[in-house]
Amino acid sequence: MKWPSDRISKSSPKSFGMYEKARKLMDQGIDVIHLEVGMPSFDTPQHIKDGAIAALQGGLVHYGDFAGNAGLRRAIVKRLADHNAVNFSENEIVVTNGLTHASYAVMMAAIDPGDEVILLEPYYPQHVNKIELAGGKVVLAPLDKARNFAIDPQTIEARITPKTKMICLVNPANPTGRVYSREELQSFADIAIRHDLLVLSDEVYEQIVYDGAEHISIASLPGMRERTFSLFAFTKAYAMDGWRIGYIAADARYMPAILKITMNDVAHVNVFIQEGARAALEGPQDVIREMLDDDKRRRDLVVSRMNQMSGVNCATPEGTIYAYPDISATGKSSAKVAEEILEQCHVVTEAGSFYGAAGDGHLRICFGAEPYERIEEALNRMARYFADCGE
Ligand SMILES: Cc1ncc(COP(=O)(O)O)c(C=O)c1O
User: Fold this and answer.
1) Cα 278 to middle of ligand 1, angstroms
2) Residue 20: per-residue pLDDT
3) pTM for the whole thing?
4) What is the CATH number of the domain that holds 160?
5) Of 282, 298, 320, at which residue does a domain stop?
6) Whose CB has fewer CB within 10 Å in the chain, the N or C terminal residue?
């Protein structure tokens, strides 16, 4: 008997990057500092928990609407109009189990075997897996490293073939920490429109922006709403990663196919969890400000300390919870540097090349998961490592 299916055996092996190597140290009881996993360090705000608890206590325990609770979808529609400058109706929203599920549903609904999907590189690795599971072919378009990983329209356009079906955008970008400007997004949109392509827009970090940076939803640009799948989640900004909730906003014409996937994989998202998400949207938003101020403090620590280390050049992330310092002056591959930092400093970082070959020469440092003092300790250890590299 053939096992597993071609769908599985032909897709890239699942990798958790450096975490797998760190696990071995942790199993030996070694205290490692985690600068690799993109997990918020805060507890979910109380009013959000209360929203879910009240729904549960009130008996919201039975099957619900496949697309999501009507009240939550109404709140999402309002949010999209107020914050993202895009108008959708309730039947153009599908509530999902986080952004992971949203992107899976879109890929499965949109991609036929052999279709090509362009990913900007460095990319978010999960998107590779999903394109491959859907039978599609990943085509990489490197971002412009010399301009701090800016969108490079010529590079994207050069990769378009008659088989190109979709381009993926992650904005704010993981792993680079970029928040794309209106001009960059317009150049991206022009290509999508000129070649009649679909766009998957991963906006999981939409609210994690600093220093007045403006996050612009690509669907708000002229001609883009009708070709864009705008994906959001409560994961990062509301510290709800374990809750598993997000949503897809897309033109009504795409929804029957998307629902065909989500109805079959999860039926619908847990109904009382959805009421927590609704409380997140309808409740006070100053909780996000407080968390962001804390993230920014840790970001500034990482950037200033990394820039003092020999052979390290760290751009200031405009958004997300990641710094992506250039460590190419060490003369070593990013995988080697990440491994040595793990072995010698017991600090887990992620090799830049985990996000594609174009990311080699960089490390991804998550400053959003560990407390300030732990990050400081990690940086002290890493400073010693980079000082030794220079000798
Ligand atoms: C770019 C990006 N997309 C999607 C996800 C997954 O989000 P969720 O936990 O909502 O599934 C992450 C998580 O780190 C991410 O960085």
Assistant:
1) 20
2) 84
3) 0.97
4) 3.40.640.10
5) 282
6) N
